[in-house]
Amino acid sequence: MYEALNVQTAPDGRLAGCQTPTVKLLQELRDGQRSQTEELHELRNEMREGRDRADQRFEIIETSLRDLAEQMVMMTRAVKVALEA
């Protein structure tokens, strides 16, 4: 890429032997951006896992409440039949 300028590049694409303050700053910015991107991906995965756990808990609670409601209906019917008898 930099052959016309007669500048050597390292295998990872960095400029070899060129450590001006500007180049250092740009490399640090790039490295910081990479680490922030990785942290963002980790945070998204953690949030997704948390959301999945919350959904599972909600399903358990919803099922329990539905079962309790059915039991209350049956008990109410039993009391009604007992009072009518």
**Ends: how far apart?**
95 Å
Largest sheet: none
Mean pLDDT: 86
Number of strands: 0
Which percent range describes the beta-strand content? under 5%
The secondary structure category is mainly alpha
Outline type: rod-shaped
Please give the count of helices.
Answer: 1
Percent of residues in helices comes to over 70%
Specify Rg, calculated over alpha carbons.
Answer: 32 Å
Query: Spans of 5+ residues with little confidence (pLDDT < 50)?
Result: none
- Taken in chain order, the helices and strands follow as H
Question: Which terms summarize this structure?
Answer:
85 residues, 0% strand, rod-shaped, mainly alpha
Short description:
This protein is an all-alpha fold and 85 residues long. The protein has one helix and no strands.
How would you sum up this structure, described in words?
- It is a single chain.
- With 85 residues, the protein is mainly α.
- It contains one helix and no strands.
- The protein has one helix at residues 21-84.
- The longest helix has 64 residues, at 21-84.
- 0% of the residues are buried.
SSE diagram, text form:
Layout: H1 21-84
